[in-house]
Amino acid sequence: MTVVNDEAGYASADIGLSEATARDYFDLLKPRVMSLVVFTAFAGLFLAPGGMNPVMGAIAILCIAIGAGASGALNMWYDADIDAIMTRTAKRPIPSGRIRRSEALAFGVALSCFSVATLGLAINWFAAFLLAFTIVYYALFYTVWLKRSTPQNIVIGGAAGAFPPMIGWACVTGGVSIDSIILFSITFLWTPPHFWALALFKMRDYGDVGIPMMPNVAGQASTKRQMFVYAVLTAFAGVAPALTGLASPAYAVFAGLLGLYFIYGSIRVWQMPETDEKMIPAKKLFGFSIFYLFAIFAGLIVDRAVALLIG
C-alpha cells in the first residue's frame, strides 16, 4: 500500500481501501480509554438497586463499550489532521496511514448505531438515549467544537467521560438518581486535573496544533491553581457515596486517603517551577490520577460485594 500526505496534512492510502488489520481497527477504538469506560459503567450497573441478570448485564456493558469505541473512532476521524503533528498521537491508525479517514468515519457511525439500537432493544431505551447522547456529546460537541475553541474544553467536554456509570445505572433502573449523579460527578470533577497535568508536559504539542489547552492560554500558574481546586472537589466527590448510604464508612476512609494524596499531588504540581522542563510532579499526578479513578470505582465495587456477602 502506497502512503502519501494529503491536503488535510495526515498520511492516508492514496487509492482504494486500506490494508488495515483487525488490530488497527481495535486501536481506532482507543482501547485504554474504553477500558476505563467499561469499568466505570460496570460499577454503575453493579451498584444500582435491584440488580440485573448477568447475561443482560454483559450485553449492556458490551453495548456501552462499543459505543465508547465508536466515539473514539469518530474522534480520530475528525482529529486526523492534528494527530499527525502531535508526538503522542502521530502513530495512531489514521495519521500513520494504516486506516483511511473515510473508513474510520464509516466504522464509527456503524458502531454507534449498532450499540445504541442494541442497548435500546435488549435493555431499555432510556439507557440507549444516554449512550447516544454521550456519543454525540463527545464526537460532535467536544471534538468538533469545544476542543478547538475554548480552554474550558476539558471542563465542559469531561461530561462525556463521566456518563458511563450513569448509563450503567440506567440499564438497571431505567432512570437516574442522586447516587448515579454522584458517580457522574466523581469522573467529571476528576477530568480537569487529570488532563491538565498531561497538558502541562505536552504544552508544546498542543501549541503546535493550536489547541487552546488551559496552560497554553491561561498560563501555568492559573492552570495549577485550578487543578488544586478540582482535586479538592474530586476528593469530596469521592467520599460522597458514603454520605448517601451507597457505600460504607470503610469505603469513606479508603476514598478519603486517596483524595488526600490526590490533593497532595496537585500541591506538588502547584509548587513546580515554570522553568522545570521535566515536570516530574505533573507526570506523577497524571499517572496517579488514572490509578485514583480506577481505585475509587474498584473500592465501590468491593464495598458493595462485601455488603452483599455479609448481608
Automatic annotation (TrEMBL):
It is found in: Cell membrane. It comes from the Bacteria. GO terms for molecular function: protoheme IX farnesyltransferase activity. Keywords: Cell membrane, Heme biosynthesis, Membrane, Transferase, Transmembrane, Transmembrane helix. Pathway: Porphyrin-containing compound metabolism; heme O biosynthesis; heme O from protoheme: step 1/1. InterPro entries: Protohaem_IX_farnesylTrfase, UbiA_prenyltransferase, UbiA_prenylTrfase_CS, UbiA_sf. It is a multi-pass membrane protein. It catalyses: heme b + (2E,6E)-farnesyl diphosphate + H2O = Fe(II)-heme o + diphosphate. The chain crosses the membrane at residues 33-52, 58-78, 99-117, 123-142, 154-175, 181-201, 227-244, 250-270, 290-310. Its EC number is 2.5.1.141. GO terms for cellular component: plasma membrane. One of its GO terms (biological process) is heme O biosynthetic process. Belongs to the UbiA prenyltransferase family. Protoheme IX farnesyltransferase subfamily. Carbon 2 of the heme B porphyrin ring is defined according to the Fischer nomenclature. HAMAP family: CyoE_CtaB. Converts heme B (protoheme IX) to heme O by substitution of the vinyl group on carbon 2 of heme B porphyrin ring with a hydroxyethyl farnesyl side group. This is Protoheme IX farnesyltransferase. It comes from Martelella mediterranea.
